[in-house]
Specification:
single chain, alpha/beta, Rossmann fold, 10 helices, 8 strands, binds S-adenosylmethionine, methyltransferase activity, transferase, SAM_dep_MeTrfase_SAV2177_type, S-adenosyl methyltransferase
Length: 270
């Protein structure tokens, strides 16, 4: 282990790469094992801008959070596939704008729970629970989720870099539809993740994800991902490369052409 984490959690599998730990490595974090470093370096060998793509996704999530809490006045957030604590966590970005914001983090990786719980001990309005997006009703019906979030009021649902890890046969569109149907009018869905803008290197990077057991359909074409925001009012500027979504001061290397491989967008339930 390369960090100073206290996760002597037996559930943590250190023999195969974990998406959460690989993402943390790419973001310059310390919560990774050797298997994660090897997978990450294979990704960087395929596409040297891989670290930039991870940073671009993270930057988009920060901007999306500011939009939800600041402009859209959302008071509660459900962040599914939240990942390991990293600079500018959703609850921290959100609390800067609304100190009373309620945030539920959900992830299926036990390492996220171990670290999230440690981070959130002193925070009554933010919790982390174990959950799998492939069973969205189990997340929405989770007792701790229902205790903190009021589903009769608008909710901001963040699906950052997660639908890319759901296989076709697991039906990502049906998962999003289930969530969309259970949130009230005025709620938002945030989507981001890798995409194939029609470039060979996106297919090559997708192949590395697949080889390391992190998903075979990570880089879906733009049109397929637009379906995730179906029946929602898509917020300007739409589902676009993350560097084009309301760019801000903290965006890394904004003119790099690799940015077409990470997209983000937000939809509002009418
Ligand atoms: C690439 S990270 C994205 C982290 C963060 N949302 C962001 O965009 O910066 C993807 C996260 O989704 C989690 N994940 C993948 N599949 C999942 C599933 N079926 N249910 C819940 N979490 C999942 C992984 O464990 C990982 O933490």
């Amino acid at each position: 282990m390369h960090g100073d984490m206290s996760d002597s959690n037996a559930a943590i599998d250190t023999s195969t790469p974990s998406i959460a730990r690989v993402y943390d490595y790419l973001l310059g974090g310390k919560h990774y094992y050797d298997v994660d470093r090897v997978a990450s370096e294979a990704m960087i060998d395929a596409v040297p801008e891989t670290t930039l793509l991870a940073a671009a996704n993270r930057s988009f999530i920060r901007r999306a959070t500011r939009f939800l809490v600041g402009e859209a006045r959302i008071e509660q957030i459900l962040d599914v596939g939240s990942g390991l604590p990293s600079a500018g966590n959703v609850h921290e970005v959100a609390q800067e704008i609304n100190p009373n914001i309620r945030v539920v983090y959900v992830d299926k990786d036990p390492i996220v729970l171990a670290n999230g719980r440690a981070l959130l001990t002193a925070n009554d309005n933010t919790i982390v629970i174990e959950g799998d997006l492939r069973d969205p009703n189990a997340i929405l019906d989770h007792p701790e989720v229902k205790q903190l979030l009021d589903f009769s009021k608008p909710i901001g649902v963040i699906l950052g870099g997660i639908l890319m890890h759901i296989e076709d046969e697991e039906d990502p569109n049906a998962i999003v539809t289930t969530i969309r149907d259970r949130i009230v009018s005025g709620s938002y869905i945030v989507h981001s993740g890798c995409a194939n803008p029609g470039e060979q290197r996106a297919a090559e990077l997708n192949e590395v994800f697949f080889q390391f057991g992190m998903g075979s359909k990570c880089f879906r074409p733009y049109e397929e991902q637009a379906a995730y925001l179906d029946q929602l009012e898509v917020i300007e500027p739409g589902l676009v490369p993350a560097n084009q979504w309301r760019p801000s001061y903290d965006f890394p290397d904004p003119t790099n052409t690799a940015h077409g491989m990470v997209i983000g967008g937000i939809g509002r339930k009418p």
